[in-house]
Design brief:
The chain is an alpha+beta fold. The chain has helices at 14-23, 29-35, 51-61, 96-101, 126-132; strands spanning 39-41, 47-49, 110-114, 119-123. A hairpin with a 4-residue loop joins strand 3 and strand 4. InterPro entries: AbrB-like (IPR027360), SpoVT-AbrB_dom (IPR007159).
Length: 133
């Protein structure tokens, strides 16, 4: 580590993690883990790579279930990580894993309330939609 202090990045998860690992190409596993934020710095300033956390996050991001659990429909797929990132175009994408878990259908509507650092979604009932229309 150089004499300038590096700012530790938050470990990447989900699609961001998979994308970054692919971008890093031929680097070693340890270098990829470090670049994705899976390391700690000891009191003596020594970086330690957290390979288990990195590999587990990568397994989760790829939707691989090692526990023998299957999703509700019996097929594989991504599991919900309960974390999302703002995309480069400024959008937040809530994935299908969440909508399936909530049994939502195309056309279901929500009211959005914004807090200081949170978003609250309240599903609009069919009766409320008809009153507004």
């Amino acid at each position: 580590m150089s004499s300038t202090k590096k700012k530790k990045i938050e470990p990447l998860t989900g699609e961001d993690l998979v994308r970054k690992v692919k971008e890093l190409g031929n680097l070693s596993k340890e270098e990829k883990a470090r670049a994705c934020g899976y390391y700690t710095v000891t009191k003596n300033g020594i970086e330690r790579v957290n390979m288990m956390k990195f590999l587990n996050a990568l397994i989760d991001a790829e939707g691989i279930e090692l526990d023998g659990k299957q999703s509700a429909n019996g097929r594989g797929g991504r599991s919900a990580s309960y974390r999302i990132s703002v995309q480069s175009n400024g959008n937040l994408l809530i994935g299908a894993a969440y909508t399936k878990q909530m049994d939502l259908k195309p056309g279901d509507e929500f009211e959005i309330s914004l807090g200081r650092k949170h978003i609250h979604l309240k599903q609009v009932d069919v009766d409320e939609r008809e009153e507004v229309a």
